[in-house]
Amino acid sequence: xxxxxxxxxxxxxxxxxxxxxxxxxxxxxxxxxxxxxxxxxxxxxxxxxxxxxxxxxxxxxxxxxxxxxxxxxxxxxxxxxxxxxxxxxxxxxxxxxxxxxxxxxxxxx
Amino acid sequence: xxxxxxxxxxxxxxxxxxxxxxxxxxxxxxxxxxxxxxxxxxxxxxxxxxxxxxxxxxxxxxxxxxxxxxxxxxxxxxxxxxxxxxxxxxxxxxxxxxxxxxxxxxxxxxxxxxx
Lengths: 109, 115
Fold this sequence. Notes:
The complex is a heterodimer of chains A (109) and B (115). Chain A is mainly β and 109 residues long. Helices cover 0% and strands 55% of the residues of chain A. Chain A has no helices and eleven strands. In chain A, strands 2, 4, 5, 9, 10 and 11 form a six-stranded mixed sheet that branches. A five-stranded antiparallel sheet of chain A has the order 1-3-8-7-6, with no helix packed on it. The relative contact order of chain A is 0.34. By secondary structure, chain B is mostly beta strands. Chain B is built from no helices and eleven strands. In chain B, the strands form two sheets. In chain B, strands 2, 4, 5, 6, 9, 10 and 11 form a seven-stranded mixed sheet that branches. Chain B has a four-stranded antiparallel sheet with strand order 1-3-8-7, with no helix packed on it. In chain B, strand 5 (42-51) and strand 6 form a beta hairpin. The radius of gyration of chain B is 13 Å and the shape is globular. Classes of the chains: A mainly beta (109), B mainly beta (115). At the A-B interface, strand 4, strand 5, strand 9 and strand 10 of A face strand 4, strand 5 and strand 10 of B.
């Protein structure tokens, strides 16, 4: 079946830049979305790439390359409050939404 | 305020006792989903609905039912809950307009324990 792969954990330093990658095994997603989830909370929408290229929203940017079946989320000027889990997700041609298993971001002071 | 609401937020029940988790959104969204979240497995789609009276199975539909009689509501029904349905459940909604397709709004979650 279709799946989205992302690293289980990433560690970075406060103030730095971190990139979280997401690769998928098959084509056929309408685009790629990114969500943030703090412990005990609900996922919140961060960014959506409906087309190839870079989308920028404040400190967060997201990139998609359909030809490489690859996307990433870039977080700049990391703050301690960015410590959370990050999920990529896509809607496939059957209108189902598939999520990656999530990347836990640890930020060191 | 644009929001998705779910009730109850916490529920402890026993095996076999039918239950319903309600979900409502006030954004006139066409697409609604139910997910379960388990440690290490991420979010898995249970059922989704493209619009009123249109529902379809997600990746893990066994043991669940849904209905979409009104655009704003999308209840999740467990006819005979079992312990393996103990999980954190999220309802979500999104527009089907192309530029908004990937932007889902999530409810606060329902933590269900089946003993």
